[in-house]
Amino acid sequence: MTIISNSAPDRPVLHAVKGDAIDMEIFVNSEIIATGRRFYVQALSAPTDGSPYTPATLRMQVRRKDGLLLKDWISGASPADIVIGAGSFHLTDDGFDEAGFFDYDVQDADFTIMRGTFYVEKETTL
Asked: Considering only CA atoms, which of 20, 9, 117, 110 is closest in space to residue 64?
């Protein structure tokens, strides 16, 4: 069976510690493929594949396995949780109130850029 989609999102595992503030800079590259667009994401520096991709808007949601929405971050609102740069975006937040393995995705107006597991580790010092 052939799967046809408008994007091939990257699938990195994101990590945070329960109760710690989130401050992530994520670099995004993409390339055109037969079924749409393929994305490459990386922290700290731009990926070597593809070319820089700068979306107009971004929305990121994190959900528990039962579907309950934990986080809903967007760009463009003031103050914005997501700030878009040239070929990257910066995510800041106060952090998570619970630990576990959660599902997330990051979408711009046209494509899902990345999706996967957001692992929130238990805090050691209470």
From this structure: 117
CATH architecture under which domain 7-121 falls? Sandwich (2.60)
| Residue 1 structure tokens | 């069976």
Q: How far is CA 14 from CA 4, 31, 62, 102, in A?
A: 26, 23, 11, 10
d(Cα 75, Cα 86) in Å, to the nearest integer? 14
Structural tokens at position 93: 């937040």
Which sequence spans correspond to the domains of the chain?
A: 7-121
Q: Is 72 a residue whose pLDDT tops 90?
A: yes
How many Å apart are CA 16 and CA 18, to the nearest integer?
A: 7
* pLDDT 10s digits, 8-44: 999 999 999 999 999 999 999 999 988 889 999 999 8
Q: What is the pTM of this model?
A: 0.90
